[in-house]
Amino acid sequence: MLDFPRWKVWAVWLTIAVCALLAVPTFLPANVKAGLPAWVTAPRINLGLDLAGGSYILLEADTNDVAAQRLETMRDTVQTEMRRGSPRVAIGDISVRDGRLSFMVRDVSQVDAARERLLPLTSGVGVTGQRDWNIEVRDSTRFVMTPTQAGIEQAIEQAMGDATEVVRRRIDELGTREPTIIRSGTNRIVVQVPGLSDPQQLKALLGRTARLEFKLVDVNATDPQALAKGQAPIGSQVLPYPSAGAPIAVKRSTIISGDQIADARQEYDPQTGAPMVAIRFDAQGGRRFAQVTQQNVGKPFAIVVDDQVISAPNINEQILGGSATISGGFTVESANELAIALRSGKLPVALRVVEERTVSAELGQDSIESGVLAGIVAAVALMVFMVVTYMRFGIYTSLSLLVNAVLIMGIMALFNATLTLPGIAGFVLTIGAAVDANVLINERIREELRRPRAAIQAVEFGYKEASTAIFDANITNVISAAIMFAFGSGPIRGFAVVLAIGIVTSVFTGVTFTRLLAADYLKRNRPKTLNL
Amino acid sequence: MRPLKLVPDHTNIAFLKYRVVAMALSGLLLVASIALCFVNGFNLGIDFVGGQMVRVSFQQPVELDTLRQQMQGFGIEDATIQTFGSDREVSIRTPLPDDTEAADAAATRLRNGIQQAYPTSQIGAVESVSGKVSAELFETGAIALALAMLAISLYIWFRFEWQFGVGALFALFHDVVLTLGFFALTQLEFDLNIVAAILTIIGYSLNDTIVVYDRIRENMRKHRRMETADLLDLSINETLSRTVVTSLSLGITLGILLLLGPDVIFGFTAAMLLGIVIGTFSSVYVSAAILLWLKLKPDSFLPKDVGPQGAERVRSKELP
């Protein structure tokens, strides 16, 4: 039991040395770190937002919204598809209701032709190859298209993927450092921005869908009372127009959408000096814009963002060159925000902030300082207590506690784990577990000494007898750490990670490392009795 | 210099003689805790009920009543205002309107209002959790707690005997309920960190229970003819020194953390400290005493009265 082969001794010290080296970069000051190659500084413990300060935002998409939008899009596609090509298929009574799209083919003889045109609009999904829409014909002329579950899931998946990308671009535009943006579950996105202590701007930016549309103003709908009630002629809709103070009616069909924007910048109006947003269309958008403005000189058109009219200027002449400006009561900030949102693309689905946690850097700093101080004081008190209780073996225990701390930090650095406040608590707790393992062993040695047994034998039996209890006790902790990690969220996970690492290291230091020290002492000094 | 021995050698306290008293006390505490949980309820943090929390540090101590009135002036209704750590640190909790924009507006009103009334104050943290997320957090927390208890008991049943599994499960239940009772009594804020604390208490209490159980099992093999009660007493006495030293070590560590540590983990450390006291008590009285009532016999580790693994055991019984 106390015979250590040389390689084992080396392995133990090597493990400790490697972990110590891994732990070092975390504690280097920033200016030293800058001068070192990346592979040296790569392993480090990241500080959680609760310690370093920063914002955590959980965004959630309304998946019903995705399904609804998909139906709307399909309605438009079906309409265009039936009109296009010859012969034209006349359809009517098209409606979206109860999550289905239905329409009637006016001429019974065209039903087969209509079906032919619909099929390419749907496609297979996933491994099973199930279609994303079911098409039925009822009463020989009524088509009913029902989205399948697999199709909806795929659409949500895609929308979330795109949304995450847009979120990433928008946050990058803000110039914040090292943001983390990850998808979570089916319809959530986690955004973590270290150092950001006022996330208002970020939230405003992420809350915007930024769907830009240019639409013609319906000049016939002028009755303010009808507009106030939201009544508009067929083919038009009433939209709020905050800077004019009253809603306005615009044509439903969109002339140009935000997809055709190449760039958007915040600029100043050369005449009035007011902030505005200058946008540049891509080639196709530019051509279309030129064409539309040519056909509608003298008429007003509306610039609509997220179903809100920003401005409705008159078209004075054909606009060539593929650029346009949006002005209308902007501040520099709001113009800049709109420009960023437009430039980074529209969100395929609206996102809502469902959880936000922001910690200011000062508070984080305070917490970590008092955490570290308390940790050091607690560790010292514990060591004194151990030495007073177990003398020489108390020193071994104290050393093993120190080594334990180094090992935990080294392993956390190796995995680039994040240290949070509950993590610090977990750290302290694993020190507790390490103490218990040591105490169990030391008490067993005492018992054996009372029997009485010779020093070497007492130590040997002590380690052997205590090991089952240590094993069982630690397994139960591993079980609860694993469950905390699997089912817990946020802080609980941070705690579980440290606890799990700590259990492994505490067994190593408590059982192997102290045994090594004790064996060395016994071999060198051959004591007859132990002062324990 | 002699080492410090808190528990003298050859200590022999008849612990189980007082088991009826101890169990009565336990039962009383259990009933009281459950009653408190229902009567007082918990001071649930926004993690579990949703809402918004703003932590403000003021330069000077502030009157909570004044602050409460000012809140209403800002148009913030139903604010829960508490100090934590010192009387210059205040947390203001408000319900969160369902609508995102309204919620943002309310947060801005609160922030601007405070900044105007107390220009030197600092907003340390803002947290907001929507009702949906908080419900999920509550659910995952409860599931984690229940699963941990179950998994641990199962492990003990496998490693020891069914009586031990039942004893451990009951001890766990005891510790968790008493800790919950403590939170219902003190109205300390109950948030996600506390769930972690309770899980840790479970872990710790089991640590303790297992050390005692391990010794009981060992002694059962050694002293086959001993009366169960005496055997349990012997085992508890033999491990008493370890129990005292470990509990004291953890007590020292947590006590220091409670006094010097960051305010954010105050509730957490308080729960842990309490858990150690309850856990130590339960591993001596609850989990060991239950073994007696479950008719654990000194020869339990040799067979017969064990249901599930009977077959294997019967064979070993035949051995001399």
From TrEMBL, chain A:
Pfam family, one: Sec_GG
Domain SecDF P1 head subdomain: 237-349
Domain Protein translocase subunit SecDF P1: from-to ranges: 162-218
InterPro entries: SecD, SecD/SecF_arch_bac, SecD/SecF_CS, SecD_1st, SecD_SecF_C, SecD_SecF_C_bact, SecDF_P1_head
Annotated coiled-coil segments of the chain: none
Spans through the membrane: 370-388, 395-415, 421-441, 469-488, 494-518
Subcellular location: Cell membrane
Keywords assigned: Cell membrane, Membrane, Protein transport, Translocation, Transmembrane, Transmembrane helix, Transport
Superkingdom of origin: Bacteria
Topology with respect to the bilayer: Multi-pass membrane protein
Gene3D superfamilies given in the database record: 3.30.1360.200, 3.30.70.3400
Residues covered by the Protein export membrane protein SecD/SecF C-terminal domain: 353-521
Family as reported in the entry's similarity comment: Belongs to the SecD/SecF family. SecD subfamily.
Biological function: Part of the Sec protein translocase complex. Interacts with the SecYEG preprotein conducting channel. SecDF uses the proton motive force (PMF) to complete protein translocation after the ATP-dependent function of SecA.
Quaternary structure, from the entry: Forms a complex with SecF. Part of the essential Sec protein translocation apparatus which comprises SecA, SecYEG and auxiliary proteins SecDF-YajC and YidC.
Xref: PANTHER family: PROTEIN TRANSLOCASE SUBUNIT SECD (PTHR30081:SF1), PROTEIN-EXPORT MEMBRANE PROTEIN SEC (PTHR30081)
Protein name: Protein translocase subunit SecD
Native source organism of the sequence: Sphingomonas qomolangmaensis
From TrEMBL, chain B:
Membrane topology field: Multi-pass membrane protein
Listed name of the protein: Protein-export membrane protein SecF
Domain Protein export membrane protein SecD/SecF C-terminal: start-end pairs: 116-295
Organism: Sphingomonas qomolangmaensis
Key word Protein transport present: yes
Membrane-crossing segments per the record: 20-42, 137-157, 164-186, 192-213, 234-259, 265-294
Keywords, alphabetical: Cell membrane, Membrane, Protein transport, Translocation, Transmembrane, Transmembrane helix, Transport
Purpose of the protein: Part of the Sec protein translocase complex. Interacts with the SecYEG preprotein conducting channel. SecDF uses the proton motive force (PMF) to complete protein translocation after the ATP-dependent function of SecA.
